[in-house]
Structure formats: structure tokens, C-alpha cells
Design a protein that fits this description.
By secondary structure, this protein is α+β, with helices and mostly antiparallel strands. The chain contains one helix and six strands; from the N terminus they run H-E-E-E-E-E-E. About 15% of the residues lie in helices and about 25% in strands. It is globular. The N and C termini lie far apart (about 45 Å).
Length: about 130
């Protein structure tokens, strides 16, 4: 019974995902902001920096990070969001295992990180993909 329920749940989720042509346009849940959807771009422990193209939703390998630098947590973007720099809002999240790039996940926020660069200005998230 559990297997049937899992398959049905996965099928419904995939059907909803197929309707969203661009993963960044995937609708947020009704109880947002208590929960929200994010698309994984870089898995925890990863050394390849991926970007989600804002126009197409494709995941693009942007560059390899220098060794031994690796991302300590999963990194991605909130769907249907827009930050001050014109890109989707960034999200950092922990899971039991690294998430594959392009995977949608429902998350509960626990805090906000305000990023400031060395000059005191707000850090801009300048992305190469989608520009």
C-alpha cells in the first residue's frame, strides 16, 4: 500500500511539474511563506557551480570551483521569486543527502541571511545564465 501511495504521489508531483514549462515558474504552495518551493542548483558537497537559466529553466554548468572548496549545503533558487538584482531569490538548505541539480523541494524557512560585501554594499547576485 505504501508503494502505491508513493507512486501516486510521485505521479501527481511529476504531472504538476510537467505543466510548469520553466522550473522557476513552478507555483508556490498555498501556505507560502510558511513553506515554499525551491529548485536545487548546487548539491551539498558539490564543486560544480550550476545556474538555472531564468528564461528557459534549464540547468547550466557554470564553472568548477577550485579545490578543495565545496558547497557545505544545498544551494538553489526560490520559484516565482525576484531579488533586488533581478534574479530569483537564493536559498541555502540542508537535507540528509545532497539533492540533484534541477530537483524541486518544499522547504520551511528558518531564517534570512543578509549578504554584504567588503565595501558595505549589498552583494548583488550577478548570474551569467539568462542574461
Amino acid at each position: 500500500m505504501h508503494l502505491v501511495k508513493t507512486i501516486l504521489t510521485a505521479g501527481l508531483f511529476l504531472s504538476a511539474a510537467a505543466q510548469a514549462q520553466n522550473v522557476l515558474e513552478f507555483p508556490q504552495p498555498e501556505n507560502n511563506p510558511e513553506e515554499f518551493y525551491a529548485v536545487t542548483e548546487i548539491p551539498a558537497g558539490g564543486i560544480i557551480k550550476y545556474e538555472t537559466d531564468a528564461k528557459t529553466g534549464f540547468i547550466i554548468a557554470d564553472r568548477f570551483q577550485s579545490m578543495p572548496v565545496a558547497y557545505p549545503a544545498n544551494y538553489g533558487s526560490l520559484t516565482q521569486s525576484l531579488a533586488g538584482d533581478g534574479d530569483p531569490l537564493d536559498v541555502v538548505f540542508y537535507t540528509r543527502a545532497p539533492m540533484a541539480p534541477g530537483t524541486l523541494i518544499k522547504l520551511r524557512p528558518i531564517g534570512v541571511l543578509k549578504m554584504i560585501d567588503g565595501g558595505g554594499e549589498r552583494r548583488q547576485n550577478h548570474r551569467r545564465a539568462g542574461q
